[in-house]
Amino acid sequence: MPSREIEVILSRQLADSLSTSVFIVDPDGNLIFYNEPAEELLGLRYEETGVMPLAEWSSIFKPRDDHGNILPPEELPLVHTISKQQPAHGEFWIKSLKGLEFKISVTSFPIMGRPNRFLGGIAIFWKKIEK
Amino acid sequence: MPSPGPEKNKYGGNTSCIQIEHDQTCLIFDGGSGIQNLGKKLGDDISEVNILLTHLHIDHIMGLGYFQPFYNPKCTINIWGPAGSSESLTVRLRRYFSPPFFPLRLNELPAKVNITEIDNSTFQIDDFLIKSEYLCHPGPTVGFRCELGKAVVSFMPDHEPSLGSSNFPHLSEWCSGYNIAKDADLLFHDAQYSNEEYDRRIGWGHCSMEDAIDFGTLSNVKKMILFHHDPINKDIDLETMLNQSVENKSFNYELMLARENDSFSI
Question: How many CB pairs under 8 A join A and B?
Fold first, then answer.
């Protein structure tokens, strides 16, 4: 399999070293990596799921607002980052695959390689409230 | 830095530079101190030279000002290399070609000089198809893959493939440089350190000889030239490092230490 761009490889290295949950997606929004803290929070393992398309990861955790309304993918910070190539931030509820519900805070930003090559996006997220 | 001396008569002490020839095409990879001797050998009749720079660390460009074709008004010199995040390749090269580092400025050189910026690029130089791709190394640094028909030569003098790789040397998808090196007939690859040295220099942009050998296996190369020797290492040190590095390691390609003035036919 061809190797990914060095900026993405190094992003994964960073994510792999952090105790903060991290998602990395490619320019099409495919989830190409998530780290161990994200695995623990979400209740799934990268080795088992592999790459996940945007439609799957943006809905599998049933993201909802404070009123319980389902959020469409385009309202998720990382999807915004991918479509606009801009940083984004948001807070919303998710349900892990273990059945636990959390309110999470998400900050995402585009991976822009030299010279202005859009290579995907990174989302850092952490649990704010557990139901 | 260049480090010639009697204890380096076998492998040489110049910094990074190799040439690829085919018909009338002259490709030169990097402009380290080795380019000075190469310029003399090219003579006064050469009309076009292509210099492909992996990056602009001083050991890779320090010979440019002493390259004779730059002083030949009948010669065209095409330079390819990566830009910085905020500075063009031309601006970065001008920093070298300016006082106090060098007496002449870039635009005062008699040769006609063309400069082209590259990143993850594919381009043609005569019959050669060249691919460049950013590598794991501090500052903007590319490796080159040079294809002519079915022949492939890859050049990655400064490269740290194990950094960033999640499972080096097993997953090509997450290994820097794999696309450049894959199935190469001849790969020139960084092999600056012993394992012990590398452990103290992680993130410096170079690799151990053992990692280089593993990278060659992952990339399925046919021949690897271990390149970019540490200037502090003498001939005997390099041979000792190589012997230690291949001990208990299995690989199925030809492996040798880069030696000044060696030539290969593909």
Answer: 58
